[in-house]
Amino acid sequence: MRQAVPPPHRTYARTMRADATKAENLLWQALRNRKLEGLKFKRQVPLEGYILDFVCFEARLIIELDGGQHSQSPRDAVRDRHFEAQGFKTLRFWNDEVEKNLDGVCLTILHEAGRIGR
Questions:
Q1: Is residue 17, in this structure, part of any structural domain at all?
Q2: Residue 56: strand pairing partners
Q3: Can you point out the beta strands (E) in 1-118?
Q4: Is residue 2 assigned to a domain?
Q5: What predicted TM-score, i.e. pTM, was given to this entire model?
Q6: Domain of 62, in residue numbers
Q7: Phi, psi at residue 15, to the nearest 5°?
């Protein structure tokens, strides 16, 4: 799924990686280096005009962490449908959910990736 990424998108994604939220950092520590059942995740990935918080291409799974600004966002719904049409599943978690229940978030990710019982 390689594609040419416009330089401004690449720069913005790099900036977002350097300026991650507390929730993004917590989840990244659980996902990085294949720590979660061998699933390879990347973070702040520019793809098709969007920047994905976390993505596992093998499991076709996108994870987005949201703060209050995303509540009922029509733009997020359009984005989710766009990637769903390409076979991706998008999981959205609130920042405070990650901060308060990281184990539960990881179990949900594993379930959706097909790594634990359905």
A1: yes
A2: 61
A3: 42-47, 50-56, 61-66, 89-94
A4: no
A5: 0.82
A6: 7-112
A7: -65, -40
